[in-house]
Amino acid sequence: MSRVSFKEINRLAIPAIIAGIAEPLISLTDIAIIGNVDRDPVEALAAAGLVGSFLSAIIWIVAQTKTSISALVSQHLGANRLHAVKTLVPQAIFFNFLLSLFIYVVTAYFAGAIFRAYNAQGLVLNYAADYYQIRALGYPLTLVTFALFGVFRGLQNTLWAMKCSLTGAFLNVGLDYLLVYGIDGYLPAMHLQGAAIASVISQAVMLVMALYFFFSKTPFGLRLSTRINPQMRGLLLMSANLFVRTAALNFAIYLANAYATGYGKNYIAAQSILMNIWLFFSFFIDGYANAGNAISGRLLGAKDYKRLWNLSIDISKYSIIIAITLIGICSLFYDEIGRLFTKEESVLVLFSSVFWMVLFMQPVNAVAFMFDGIFKGLGEAKYLRNVLLFATFLGFTPVLLLGDYFGMKLYAIWFAFFVWMIIRSSALVIKFRRKYLKKEA
């Protein structure tokens, strides 16, 4: 059989889509609810959007060990050598925990300085710092959970992560309404702080569920060996390359938000909605990339290059269909989508004028994210790092600066993102064809 079946791909991809959108869905829920509060809605929306983007940036960077774990577990599964990573898994999870504690301490202490670097001032700055210091408590919870999800994906199972993520997302929605608005006579309205507390509680529940699946369904445990697993060096090297890559990715997001904040509070409010929708779409499309990540690692371990080549074609096709479907749905409800997040007309005008650009780039995003997932499964972290550095500093940044010079504002930001994604997708497609087309034959 020369192809991975549609059923097998979707068995991994569909749960991965649902699991992947949980974290951005938590941020989107916060933004939607906060954007409709009675007190300082524009400032609160801007603060929630800035923090949501920054949290996603940090989590993307440090959660790359999840991808590294997934790649190594899947490769060893394909080679029938899971025993070789039995001590690696708890060591990697413990590393994630220590790293998350360090990040929490540093960023929570410097929260004010961090958001001043985004050009936040006054109420926006105060709200962002207060909201972040609570949300940041979720770092250890989220990063350990993500490490466990990486183990599940490496074992070709994304269903367990989906169950954890769905529970966390639904719980967050209910707690958001309860804690942000309060209950007259019983529970005071807690505004942004309530949204942050709701998120941390949801993340804790997700971790407890993930630990249950880890102990009851996988061959691994959390007992630490005094001897460092020989694969640990490879995992840390792959993770380091992915850290640098993701840091470059998030530099682009930081630059976009910093420029939008500099244009005024209405601009950063609109940019916050656009950015978090873009991130939501990214995680949504990323479900097939996660399937590609898991399956490609297994096929590489088994040296099955023909099925690997066909996998890239099939998953590209499915990802583009998902992207076109999202475009169609959002086009039908173009104006209504903005009103889910705010009632401020000045913000809605800015949002509507640029939202089409976010939609237009989705098929290009689909190809880039899909090949990202496959290259991660193949352990090609160095190439992914180099592509992102090139796309960010020789593509995104000069386009943004040029557009800003000509006064294009939000249009400059999203045109820069479009150029960024074209470079990323093109470089990955060309590399994959050159390396694996001959092997497939």
TrEMBL record:
Keywords linked to the UniProt accession: Antiport, Cell membrane, Ion transport, Membrane, Transmembrane, Transmembrane helix, Transport
Alphabetized Pfam families for the sequence: MatE
Keyword ATP-binding in record: no
Membrane topology, record value: Multi-pass membrane protein
Transmembrane regions: 12-33, 45-63, 93-112, 132-152, 164-183, 195-215, 235-256, 268-289, 315-334, 354-375, 387-406, 412-430
Compartments, as annotated in UniProt: Cell membrane
Name the UniProt record assigns to this protein: Multidrug-efflux transporter
Organism name: Salinimicrobium flavum
Lineage, top ranks: Bacteria, Pseudomonadati, Bacteroidota, Flavobacteriia, Flavobacteriales
